[in-house]
């Protein structure tokens, strides 16, 4: 009986890891940041506003409270539309993707306090299966030379809508005449390279670095962990799950 329970738990974890899991999104996942630009527009101080969807699901119909909103600067109505009831519709109600930022500016004193009060979420949203196949590596020549060696530009993209950590690339025989930022890439002695110090790489995030050598190194994804929220991270290697 105990073995059956352990097996059931293992199968459940395996399913959760392969499919992923998005946390429940609410307006609390929408962050509003506001700061002075240092400029004045028609005698009024200008304010820069950044609204970020900090959820792994797309949100639509985002409404901000913006009581007494006034401005001497024209605001792009595709980004913000004030209504008569002290509300502002963000981005025309259009989708705001996971970790997407919407930025606008206005000019007035005192500043408006913006805060989210309503949004719509696709409640069926869930993280797609994260595999080595949707962790993409793109490499191209820059056209420059560093100490007699051609420079290569490398872009690693997380094309899964779950955050990944501990990304390891295969990088056998990696060499370079160009200093590589160790916060982006750290080679080890076993033909592997740790990307971004193992720190989180968000959905659709790109990590870029460059190096110089001939022949170029063939980088390819080897390992990663998936952030499943309340579950611990489990390693995925060559498409095989290790619990």
Automatic annotation (TrEMBL):
Q: What is the protein's given name?
A: Uncharacterized protein
Q: What is the lineage of its organism?
A: Eukaryota, Viridiplantae, Streptophyta, Embryophyta, Tracheophyta
Q: What organism does the record attribute this protein to? A: Rhododendron simsii
Does the keyword Signal feature in the UniProt annotation?
Answer: yes
GO:BP terms for this protein?
Answer: cell fate determination
PANTHER family associated with the record: BETA-1,3-N-ACETYLGLUCOSAMINYLTRANSFERASE FAMILY PROTEIN, PROTEIN TAPETUM DETERMINANT 1-LIKE-RELATED
Which Pfam families does the UniProt entry name for this protein? TPD1_C (PF24068)
Q: Does the keyword Signal apply?
A: yes
Name the UniProt key words of this record, in alphabetical order: Signal
The residues the entry assigns to the signal sequence are: 1-22
């Amino acid at each position: 009986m105990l073995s059956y329970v352990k097996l059931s738990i293992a199968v459940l974890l395996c399913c959760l890891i392969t499919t992923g899991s998005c946390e429940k999104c609410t307006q609390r996942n929408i962050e509003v940041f506001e700061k002075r630009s240092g400029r004045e527009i028609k005698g009024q101080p200008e304010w820069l506003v950044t609204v970020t969807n900090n959820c792994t699901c797309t949100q639509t119909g985002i409404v901000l409270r913006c009581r007494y909103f006034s401005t001497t600067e024209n605001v792009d109505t595709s980004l913000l539309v004030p209504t008569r009831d002290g509300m502002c519709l963000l981005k025309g109600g259009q989708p705001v993707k996971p970790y997407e930022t919407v930025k606008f500016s206005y000019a007035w004193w005192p500043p408006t306090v913006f805060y989210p009060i309503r949004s719509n979420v696709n409640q069926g949203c869930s993280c797609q299966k994260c595999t080595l196949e949707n962790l993409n590596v793109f490499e191209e020549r820059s056209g420059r030379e560093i100490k007699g060696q051609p420079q290569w530009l490398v872009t690693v993209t997380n094309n899964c809508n779950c955050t990944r950590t501990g990304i390891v690339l295969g990088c056998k025989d990696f060499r370079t005449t160009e200093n590589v930022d160790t916060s982006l890439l750290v080679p080890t002695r076993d033909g592997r390279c740790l990307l971004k110090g193992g720190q989180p790489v968000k959905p659709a995030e790109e990590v870029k670095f460059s190096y110089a050598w001939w022949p170029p190194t063939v980088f390819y994804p080897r390992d990663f962990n998936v952030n499943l929220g309340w579950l611990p991270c489990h390693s995925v290697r060559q498409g095989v799950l290790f619990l």
